[in-house]
Amino acid sequence: MASDENRMRAEAVFRKPEPATKNNKTSAEQAAAAQAADTNRARLKSLRLAKEAAARATSQVKKR
């Protein structure tokens, strides 16, 4: 009995952890979501800057 317990403890110590595929998948999903958010944020920023530039150009034309 004691040798079985010792063997089981030793196996538990040296056993490699099982790959966490669910956690890896979750990380990949989070990375994809972050990438999509960054892309959307960049698109919205460029639209905002273009709108502001157009407004500035229009206001300069009206002043002349």
Describe, in plain words, how this protein is organized in 3D:
The chain is mostly helical. The protein has one domain (20-64). It has helices at residues 2-14, 21-63. The longest helix has 43 residues, at 21-63.
How would you describe the shape? rod-shaped
Low-pLDDT segments: none
Radius of gyration using CA atoms only = 29 Å
- Mean pLDDT figure: 85
Number of strands: 0
Relative helix content: over 70%
Give the DSSP E fraction (strand runs of 2 or more residues): under 5%
Total domain count:
1
The description of the largest β-sheet is: none
| Strand and helix order | HH
Provide a count of the helices: 2
Question: What gap, in angstroms, lies between the N and C termini?
Answer: 98 Å
The secondary structure category is mainly alpha
In short:
The protein is mostly helical and 64 residues long. It contains two helices and no strands.
Topology at a glance:
Blueprint lengths: L1 H13 L6 H43 L1
Considering the chains and any ligands shown, give keywords for the structure.
single chain, 64 residues, mainly alpha, 88% helix
